[in-house]
């Protein structure tokens, strides 16, 4: 089977009349062009040129093949132009997934700015607590918190560390005081969080200091937990970027290093080459990294 690149060189030699002129036009060595013509003739089992002192002259077979190859060149040029145009355009859709609290505080402002710059890109949002499968195409981009790394089949980078600590309402603090450290949690009503967040190292460490008898309940999401804490039910663990913005809540103690999680921006190796996804990833990474201090708490 012949190589298309050899056909491209064949057409160049046919048009220029010599390997020297074709090599100069293509910025290749004459030796390379001559060798590739020999390879092409061998692959096809045909003599394409008559080598004369005046140059390379097409044989009858060569003229027939050159005529058949011209549409291939035209189609290849059309393909290159189409690919170039697709590379420049950012029109299309991006499906972004993140937990609700992360989406509300961190992803939504990036989406708004990105849409102002690229109005032809439609963003589909998923702020559920479910972990969508990027490899199966359930989303294009994910912003996820993790104790460790990411699936090696995905592509992404760690953009920030997220500090967590204990929060309670001002009303709760007035009635019961606040724990000065994790060790004091055993003396307070604690509201746990369920789901995947409960499985994280920081959540397990936090709950290990609570008295099981005094656990006042379990919330299924961070947003649900926030509402329960605002009502004064007890003390619970929240990410600092969220808890610090709740006017009805107060920090109980500085974020312990044991409760730090990592924030990742993730896509697939294939999706990262899609221009609109690459542009969104670049903007999101820059904006999230700029907030590292706030995210660390």
UniProtKB/TrEMBL annotation:
Keywords: DNA-binding, Transcription, Transcription regulation. Residues 2-59 form the HTH lysR-type domain. Transmembrane segments: none annotated. It comes from the Bacteria. It holds the Pfam family LysR_substrate. The keyword Lyase does not apply. InterPro entries: LysR-type_TF_proteobact-type, LysR_HTH_N, LysR_subst-bd, WH-like_DNA-bd_sf, WH_DNA-bd_sf. Signal peptide: none annotated. SUPFAM superfamilies: Periplasmic binding protein-like II (SSF53850), Winged helix' DNA-binding domain (SSF46785). Belongs to the LysR transcriptional regulatory family. PANTHER family: HTH-TYPE TRANSCRIPTIONAL REGULATOR, TRANSCRIPTIONAL REGULATORY PROTEIN. This is LysR family transcriptional regulator. It comes from Defluviimonas salinarum.
């Amino acid at each position: 089977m012949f190589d298309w690149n050899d056909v491209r060189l064949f057409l160049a030699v046919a048009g220029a009349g010599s390997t020297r002129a074709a090599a100069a036009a293509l910025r290749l060595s004459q030796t390379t062009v001559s060798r590739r013509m020999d390879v092409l003739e061998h692959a096809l089992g045909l003599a394409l040129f008559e080598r004369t002192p005046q140059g390379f002259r097409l044989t009858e077979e060569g003229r027939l093949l050159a005529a058949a190859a011209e549409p291939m060149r035209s189609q290849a040029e059309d393909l290159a132009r189409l690919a170039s145009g697709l590379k420049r355009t950012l029109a299309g859709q991006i499906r972004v997934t993140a937990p609700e609290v992360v989406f509300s505080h961190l992803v939504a402002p990036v989406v708004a700015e990105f849409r102002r710059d690229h109005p032809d890109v439609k963003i589909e949002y998923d702020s559920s607590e479910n972990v969508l499968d990027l490899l199966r195409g359930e989303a294009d981009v994910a912003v996820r918190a993790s104790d460790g790394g990411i699936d090696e089949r995905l592509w992404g980078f760690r953009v920030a560390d997220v500090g967590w600590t204990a929060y309670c309402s001002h009303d709760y603090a007035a009635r019961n005081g606040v724990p000065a450290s994790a060790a004091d949690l055993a003396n307070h009503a604690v509201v746990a969080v369920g789901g995947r967040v409960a499985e994280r190292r920081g959540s397990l460490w936090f709950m290990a200091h609570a008295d099981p008898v005094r656990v006042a309940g379990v919330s299924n999401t961070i947003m649900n937990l926030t509402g329960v804490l605002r009502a004064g039910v007890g003390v619970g663990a929240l990410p600092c970027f969220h808890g610090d913005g709740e006017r009805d809540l107060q920090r109980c103690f500085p974020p312990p290093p044991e409760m730090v999680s990592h924030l990742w921006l993730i896509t697939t190796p294939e999706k990262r080459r899609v221009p609109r996804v690459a542009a969104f990833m670049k903007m999101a990474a820059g904006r999230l990294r700029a907030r590292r201090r706030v995210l660390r708490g």
